[in-house]
Amino acid sequence: xxxxxxxxxxxxxxxxxxxxxxxxxxxxxxxxxxxxxxxxxxxxxxxxxxxxxxxxxxxxxxxxxxxxxxxxxxxxxxxxxxxxxxxxxxxxxxxxxxxxxxxxxxxxxxxxxxxxxxxxxxxxxxxxxxxxxxxxxxxxxxxxxxxxxxxxxxxxxxxxxxxxxxxxxxxxxxxxxxxxxxxxxxxxxxxxxxxxxxxxxxxxxxxxxxxxxxxxxxxxxxxxxxxxxxxxxxxxxxxxxxxxxxxxxxxxxxxxxxxxxxxxxxxxxxxxxxxxxxxxxxxxxxxxxxxxxxxxxxxxxxxxxxxxxxxxxxxxxxxxxxxxxxxxxxxxxxxxxxxxxxxxxxxxxxxxxxxxxxxxxxxxxxxxxxxxxxxxxxxxxxxxxxxxxxxxxxxxxxxxxxxxxxxxxxxxxxxxxxxxxxxxxxxxxxxxxxxxxxxxxxxxxxxxxxxxxxxxxxxxxxxxxxxxxxxxxxxxxxxxxxxxxxxxxxxxxxxxxxxxxxxxxxxxxxxxxxxxxxxxxxxxxxxxxxxxxxxxxxxxxxxxxxxxxxxxxxxxxxxxxxxxxxxxxxxxxxxxxxxxxxxxxxxxxxxxxxxxxxxxxxxxxxxxxxxxxxxxxxxxxxxxxxxxxxxxxxxxxxxxxxxxxxxxxxxxxxxxxxxxxxxxxxxxxxxxxxxxxxxxxxxxxxxxxxxxxxxxxxxxxxxxxxxxxxxxxxxxxxxxxxxxxxxxxxxxxxxxxxxxxxxxxxxxxxxxxxxxxxxxxxxxxxxxxxxxxxxxxxxxxxxxxxxxxxxxxxxxxxxxxxxxxxxxxxxxxxxxxxxxxxxxxxxxxxxxxxxxxxxxxxxxxxxxxxxxxxxxxxxxxxxxxxxxxxxxxxxxxxxxxxxxxxxxxxx
Length: 891
What we know:
Elements: H1 4-20, H2 51-57, H3 60-70, H4 80-94, H5 96-109, H6 116-124, E1 144-151, E2 169-173, E3 176-180, H7 193-200, H8 212-224, E4 249-257, E5 260-267, E6 278-282, E7 304-309, E8 312-317, E9 323-326, E10 330-333, E11 338-344, H9 345-348, E12 355-364, E13 370-376, H10 390-398, E14 406-408, H11 410-414, E15 417-423, E16 426-433, E17 449-456, E18 466-472, H12 481-485, H13 487-497, E19 500-504, H14 516-531, E20 535-545, H15 547-558, E21 565-569, E22 576-578, E23 593-595, E24 599-601, E25 605-607, E26 630-635, H16 643-656, E27 660-665, H17 672-676, H18 680-687, E28 697-702, H19 704-712, E29 730-735, E30 747-753, E31 759-765, E32 786-798, E33 804-810, E34 812-818, E35 830-836, E36 840-845, E37 851-855, E38 858-863, E39 867-871, E40 874-882
Parallel strand pairs: 18-19, 18-20, 20-21, 21-26, 26-27, 33-35, 34-36
Antiparallel strand pairs: 1-15, 2-3, 3-4, 4-5, 5-11, 6-7, 6-12, 7-8, 8-9, 10-11, 12-13, 12-14, 16-17, 17-19, 22-25, 23-24, 27-32, 28-30, 29-34, 30-33, 31-32, 35-40, 36-39, 37-38, 37-40
C-alpha cells in the first residue's frame, strides 16, 4: 500500500500539473470528411462520473463516483510506475476533460456576460509577440504546392510517377496517385497516457496555441533526463507497436486500367513477406459499419475492407461481416520492399466512379492479436513529437480513422494527370535514399530510407536566391527535435530571416557527425540543393546545440567555404568535453579516470560515445574561421561542456583578430537555452553575413588526427575517405608528416591573392548594438542578462590591387592554387613569394593561357592548362610570365 505522505505528494504534484498546464486540444491530425463533418470522438474525454462532472452538473451521485475512483490510488505502487498510475487515477476521477470543456464554454459565453467589456478589450488587443520564454508558437505543417498540371500518361504496367518524398502529402504523377507517408511512424495507438496528459495541460490555455509547447517539454524531459511518466513522456505517442517489420509505410501508389486499379505499397523496412499486411477501408455505397473486422474501430463512413497480404486478397463486407476473396496475385518484392496487386475497379469505386479510401498496415500485438500500426492518408499531422504520429495515435485510441479517408480522382488518372509540385511554406519531413555503405536494411531507423526536417519560410519564392540554415541536433536528438521541442528556433531562422531551415538526423542520436553521420550530412546537403536549386551559396548558415554545436565547429572549420557564418549553442568543442587545459600539454596524457555522470577523462579531456576527445578537438582548427564569423552562446554552469574551454575559444579568436560574438549566460546550465527557446540574437548575428565568393586571403589548417577520427570513429567497419584539403582557391594540400597519432601535428597554408579587392579592416570589441542588443542584455532576444565579448571588423578603406600572390606553408608536401579564382591576369607578369618550411610541390591550376615560371634567371616550369612547380624549403621569389617556355631574363 502506498503511504499517506506519498499519496499526498503525488496528488499535490499532479493537481499542480493540471492547474499550470495549457495547450490546444490534441489534434487528430487530418482534414474533416468530404462532407465537412468531423466524426472523430474526443480521445481524451473522461467518463461523466467525475468530480468535475459533480461540480459542473450539480449531481451528488457523480461526486460519489469520482471519490470512489480516487480510492484507486491505494493500488498504485511506490515506484516510477506508481507515479503514472496515480496521475491516471486522479485524471479519471477529476475528469479534466470536463473542466476544459467548461473553460471553453465560459470563454465562448464571455461576450454575453457581465465581463463583456473585459472580453472586448482582450479581443482588440494586439497579440503578444512570440518572445516569452518557454511559451512558444508552434511550427505550422507545410503543404504541397501544385505548380502546374499536365497530361503525361505512364507507360502501361509501369510505376513511372515521381514521388514528392515529403511526408504526409499526395499528388498525381503520370497518371498515378502517390501518397508519401512519414517514416518511422508505425507506433500504433496511444495507450491513453499521452491523451490524459494532453487534456490535463489544457486548463489555463485552452485557446492559447503557445502552451502547446508544454506537452513537448514533457517529451524532452522524459528523453533527456529520464523522468518517468507523467512528468516525462516517450518520444512517440503511439504505444501499440514499435516500428515492427512490414508496418512502416513509405508510399502508397494507385494506377488505373479500364476495369482494374493497380496498387503498390512501399515500406521503410520489409524483411519477411508475410509481415506485409495492408488493409484498405473503402467508402463505396450507402451505409457504414465494422462487422467482421475486430480492430477496435468504429466508423460512420466505411462499408468494405480489403485485406492484402502474402496469402492473397480477402474482402470483408463491413455491413454484414461476410467475406470473399479476389482472384488476383499479390507480389511482394523484398529487395524493393514493395507489395503490389491488381484489384477490380468496381469493387472499390462508388456510384460516381471515384475512389474513397483509407489504408492501414497491420502488425501483431504482444497478446498475439492484430493491431493497426500505421495509417494513410494523414495530411495535417501536427508538428509534435519526433515521429509525426500524434494524430494517428490519438485517432486510433479513439477508435476511428474516418477523417483519414481521401478521395482519389480516377478520371484524372485515366487521362494521365501529372502535377509538378514543390514544398509550400511550413514544416515538412523530407525523405531521401541514403548510401548502402551506411544503411542496415534490418534496422528500424538506420535503413536506406532516411529523413530530415525542412522548413520553407512564409514568403518563399522558388525563383529567388534564398538563404539556407542547417541546424544540427544535440546528443539524444533526432531530425524533428528542432521543430517539435524548440519551435522558436525554426521561426527565428525561417520567419524572421526568410531562410530555408534544414535539420538533419545525423544517422542517430549520438553519432557526433563523424563517419556515417558525416556522410549523412552531405547527403542531406546535396538533397536539399537538388530539391531547391536556387539556394543562395553565399548565404548558407550552420548552427547546432551541444553535440550539434560540435558539428557546427567541425563542418564549419573543415569546410569553411560552404558557409557564411556559424552559431554554436552550449556547443561541445570535441566528442566529449575539453576542460580548457592544454591541449598540447603533458597533463593531457595523464591516466583517465571515471568522471561521475560524464565518462572517462583526465585534466584536459572527457571521452564520450567511443570518441577520441584529444584527436577531435576543433579548437586546433580555429585559424580556418577567417571568413566564418561565429556566434557562441554558453552558460557559466554548464557541467557537460565546461565554460573554461569556451573561454579559450574566445581568447583564440581574439588573438587571431577574427569576427566572433560570445554570449556568456550567468547561471545557465547545459539545457537552459533550449528550455527557454530563445535564439534571436544568434540568428540575427549569422544573417548579417554573406560568404565571400573568392576571398583575398585564405588560411587553412589540416589536422591528420582529426581527419582520421572523422573517417574511423563510429564507422562500424565501413571505410570512409573524407579528405578536407583546402578551401576556396586552395586545394590538394598534402602533408610531409601526416602522422595522425600526434594530435598536435598539422599542416597549414596562409595564402594571399593581391588581385582580389577587399576592404581593409580593423578589429574592434563587439557591443551588439548593431543588431538591437547590448553588451549585457538583449531585450527582444533573451530574457536574462549575459556578458558579451567578441570582435567586429570595421572597414577603414580598401586594399591595394596587384597582379601578385604570396604563400606561407607549414609541413606541406603539396598544394594547388586556382589562378582563375585568384583573379590573377595570366596575360601579364605575375609576381609571387613562396615561403615553406619544407620542399613543396605547388600546382597552379585553371590557367587562362600558357605560363612560364621563373625564379631569378632560372626557368622552373612551363605549362598551358596547369603549372607544376617543385620548390625548395625556405623563401622562393617567383615570376610567372605569359607564354610557354619563356626566357627568364632579369626583370
